[in-house]
């Protein structure tokens, strides 16, 4: 059974499981996801950037997805804070939490951008918590399902935004700084998982470069725009969460700490 864009959006809105997989190839799934994006824009939701998922090679075998994917972030799903915030996860399906680096774009990168040109196009970096979700029970899916399911995006909390030119003078220095940084993911005072920036395609800036190339290869996809927010993938595994819980990510410099309470 192939789910139409209208059916995909209805399952998302009503928080209902799909009866089975989307029945699409990955390329077809991106076309459906872009059609869902158009439906959401038509009802006055505003796209504010992108999430990039499955950049962490250490979890590919666990989920059976062996290449990065991407989806849209919305004004209805994005929240900013100075270091501690709340997220309402009502209406999400089997929500899980991911700590990651988030970028804010200052400009559209040039064609065939180098890492240095991409760095010049970034305005800020921040610690982020993405809540991902699955409308396939038990997080059992194939890659095309994750694309059709809005890239698994549910919510995004972005912490303190740091201008990248305050941190490094060039892409190599900035990339190395993020790649070697570690994070402790904590529920309350208990460390649940540890990871590092190098887990995401050798570093978040590399993950962003990979995403840019994939975005521009996708028929009908919009380009990166100034002001877009882009997540770059989880540094740890994704952990189940529920209302009432408090989680923290203790990132090493330059990102610092981010705390979230769920309701």
> Quaternary arrangement of the chains shown?
single chain
Mean pLDDT: 96
- Please mark out the parts with pLDDT under 50 across 5 or more consecutive residues, or reply none: none
Determine the number of helices (DSSP H or I, runs of at least 4 residues). Answer: 7
Architecture, according to CATH?
Alpha-Beta Complex
Tally of individual domains: 1
Strand content: 25-35%
CATH topology: Fumarylacetoacetate hydrolase, domain 2
Largest sheet: 9 strands, mixed
Number of strands: 14
Overall shape: it is: globular
Helix fraction, binned, reads 25-40%
Q: What is the name of the CATH class? A: Alpha Beta
User: How far apart, in Å, are the first and last alpha carbons?
Assistant: 35 Å
- Write down the secondary-structure element order: HHEHEEEEHEHEEHEEHEEEE
Structural class: alpha+beta
Query: Considering the protein shown, what is the CATH homologous superfamily?
Result: Fumarylacetoacetase-like, C-terminal domain
Gyration radius over CA: 17 Å
């Amino acid at each position: 059974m192939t789910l139409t864009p209208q059916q995909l959006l209805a399952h998302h809105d009503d928080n209902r499981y799909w009866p089975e997989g989307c029945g699409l190839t990955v390329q077809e799934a991106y076309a459906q996801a872009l059609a869902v994006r158009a439906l959401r824009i038509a009802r006055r939701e505003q796209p504010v950037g992108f999430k990039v998922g499955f950049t962490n090679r250490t979890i590919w075998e666990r989920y059976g997805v062996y290449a990065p994917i991407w989806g849209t972030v919305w004004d209805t799903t994005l929240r900013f804070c100075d270091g501690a915030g709340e997220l309402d996860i009502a209406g999400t399906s089997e929500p899980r939490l991911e700590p990651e680096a988030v970028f804010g774009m200052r400009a559209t990168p040039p064609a065939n951008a180098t890492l240095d040109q991409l760095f010049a196009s970034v305005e800020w970096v921040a610690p982020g918590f993405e809540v991902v979700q699955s409308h396939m029970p038990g997080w059992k899916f194939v890659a095309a399902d994750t694309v059709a399911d809005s890239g698994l995006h549910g919510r995004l909390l972005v912490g303190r935004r740091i201008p990248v030119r305050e941190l490094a003078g060039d892409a190599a220095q900035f990339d190395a700084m993020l790649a070697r940084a570690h994070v402790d993911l904590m529920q309350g005072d208990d460390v649940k998982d540890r990871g590092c920036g190098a887990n995401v395609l050798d570093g978040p800036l590399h993950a962003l470069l990979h995403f840019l190339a994939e975005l521009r290869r996708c028929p009908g996809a919009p380009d990166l725009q100034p002001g877009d927010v882009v997540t770059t993938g989880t540094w740890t595994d994704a952990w189940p969460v529920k209302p009432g819980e408090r989680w923290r990510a203790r990132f090493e410099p330059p990102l610092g700490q981010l705390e979230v309470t769920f309701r």
